[in-house]
C-alpha cells in the first residue's frame, strides 16, 4: 500500500512560505500495524515535516507502547491518552 503525505491546512494568517515543509497528514496505513519498511518511511517523514497526523487512529495500549519503543528504544513508559503513564510490560488502564 502506498503511503500518502498530504500537507496540513494552514490558518489564513500563517505565512505559507515559512511552513512549506511543516506537518503532513498520513494516509494509506495503520499506525498500529507498521511494517519495518513503513516505519522507516514514517520516521523519515517525521524528521522532515516535524509533525504527522494520523486521523481516526485507534491503538491498543500494546500498539502504542510498540510505536513509542520504535521511535525511542530506551523508553520505558508512555502515555495513552488518559494522563497515566504505563511502564513497559503493563497494560494501559
From TrEMBL:
Keywords assigned by UniProt, alphabetized: Dioxygenase, Iron, Metal-binding, Oxidoreductase
| Residue spans of biased composition, Polar residues class | 74-86
Q: Which Pfam families match?
A: TauD (PF02668)
Give the similarity note: Belongs to the TfdA dioxygenase family.
Organism equals Crucibulum laeve
Report whether Iron shows up as a keyword of the record. Answer: yes
Mind telling me what this protein is named?
TauD/TfdA-like domain-containing protein
Q: What cofactor(s) does the depicted protein rely on?
A: Fe(2+)
Annotated region (Disordered) at 70-93
- Which N-terminal residues, if any, form the signal peptide? none
InterPro entries linked: TauD-like_sf (IPR042098), TauD/TfdA-like (IPR003819), TfdA_dioxygenase (IPR051178)
Give this protein's Gene Ontology molecular function annotations. dioxygenase activity; metal ion binding
Source domain of life is: Eukaryota
Q: Taking every annotated instance into account, which residue ranges of this chain make up the domain TauD/TfdA-like?
A: 20-87
Amino acid at each position: 500500500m502506498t503511503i500518502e503525505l498530504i500537507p496540513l491546512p494552514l490558518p489564513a494568517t500563517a505565512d505559507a512560505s515559512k511552513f512549506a515543509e511543516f506537518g503532513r497528514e498520513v494516509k494509506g496505513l495503520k499506525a498500529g500495524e507498521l511494517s519495518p519498511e513503513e516505519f522507516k518511511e514514517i520516521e523519515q517523514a517525521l524528521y522532515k515535516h516535524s509533525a504527522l497526523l494520523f486521523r481516526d487512529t485507534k491503538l491498543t495500549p500494546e500498539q502504542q507502547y510498540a510505536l513509542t519503543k520504535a521511535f525511542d528504544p530506551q523508553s520505558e513508559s508512555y502515555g495513552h491518552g488518559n494522563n497515566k503513564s504505563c511502564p513497559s510490560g503493563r497494560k494501559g488502564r
